[in-house]
Amino acid sequence: MLQLQVIRENAAEVVRALQKKHYAAAQENIDKILALDAERRRTQQELEALLQESNKISKEIGDLYKQGKKQEADALKEKTALSKEKNKELSAKAGELEQQIQSLLYSIPNTPHASVPEGKDAADNVVERQVGELDSLPENALPHWELAAKYNIIDFELGNKITGAGFPVYKGKGARLQRALINFFLDRANKAGYVEIEPPLMVNEASGYGTGQLPDKDAQMYHIGLDNFYMIPTAEVPVTNLYRDCILQEKDLPVKNCAYSACFRREAGSYGKDVRGLNRLHQFDKVEIVRVEKPEDSYKVLDEMCAHVGHLLEELELTYRVLRLCGGDISFTSALTFDFEVYSAAQKRWLEVSSVSNFETYQANRLHLRYKDAEGKTRLLHTLNGSALALPRVVAALLENHQDEKGIRIPKALQEFTGFDRID
């Protein structure tokens, strides 16, 4: 969440930045926070003055008892009783104001980086670069859902029978391809220095608030009401929360973690041809890379993470492009995001397979994630993460773009993980 001190000192700038994200309540909520903060500080000052007076009176009472002036001391004790009651009221008021401020801060998105372009939605995202040529396939080329049925590697109807739409069943070489991709992504992350984590697939409410999925994405998460747990939408949530309420030492940095997990998203309101097959699922597999960095290093690291994702796609022999997300399309928590899309030659459209984001101090402030610098000063850290990679649309592009008249070719870099070079 945004830092209260930053809002106090740069309110107009914060409002302008939030308006770039098309956050309609920017001015209203920043004004509310400033008003509540001013009232809380006045209440705190009154409380501190009252405490000072109470301490002074307590000392006077002690002195009077020592002097044998019991009647005067008892009279002062009655005054301290009233003071204690007032103290209690002021403490409760300060606590209530603090909760109201916190609630408002949780509802306000991160401010975008200066390099985020203006724009309302995905149509206004900026293409940074394209790597590879657009694949051309024969006229009779099949989309991945038909290839999956033809080679009996993914069964969408069976998943629908067991659970519902958006929960496919992978079979035979389809299941082995999934496992191979997971191992390939983890292998490359490990070689890049990421420490592997195997996280829980459910998190508590505090973890959801820590990384910003709550309250913003509450409707998109699967909630287990009896235990008040949430199924994770990405490994980012449990892995980043490993460092909640931590003060790291400078020698502990940078933190580089990777994790494979199943991911669960309700995807409410997603319908139509663009969500067919593997294009949008409620359960899918993903390898995530997570970084915790000093603020001065985080944007260099963001470029490094983007390069890592690009290399994976190149090894898979997939044409891709990188988008800089505009203010209207960037996520609630992100300061700057680059999306990676692969080209689906059979569907003749681009499919998002990764988002790489810098959250600056937004998550760290929620998580109370800090470090002590060389001078011993405690500072907030920057958090970053990226999909490296999400499997469903990568699989869709692999099946579609590498199909030929005999079947589906497996890229050379993946063959040591699959144990086969073709699906036919």
Outline the structure in words.
This protein has 424 residues and is of the alpha+beta class. It is 43% helix and 21% strand. It has helices at 4-9, 11-20, 26-66, 70-107, 144-150, 156-162, 173-191, 205-211, 236-240, 298-315, 362-367, 391-401, 412-418; strands at residues 126-131, 154-155, 169-170, 195-197, 202-204, 223-224, 229-231, 247-249, 255-264, 283-293, 320-324, 336-344, 349-358, 370-372, 378-380, 382-390, 408-409, 422-423. An 8-stranded mixed sheet has the order 1-11-12-13-16-10-9-4. Strands 5-7-6 form a 3-stranded antiparallel sheet. Helix 2 (11-20) runs antiparallel to helix 3. The radius of gyration is 27 Å and the shape is elongated. The mean pLDDT is 94.
Summarize this entry quickly.
By secondary structure, the protein is α+β, with helices and mostly antiparallel strands. It contains 13 helices and 18 strands.
Keywords:
single chain; 424 residues; alpha+beta; 8-stranded mixed beta sheet; 3-stranded antiparallel beta sheet; 13 helices; 18 strands; 43% helix; 21% strand
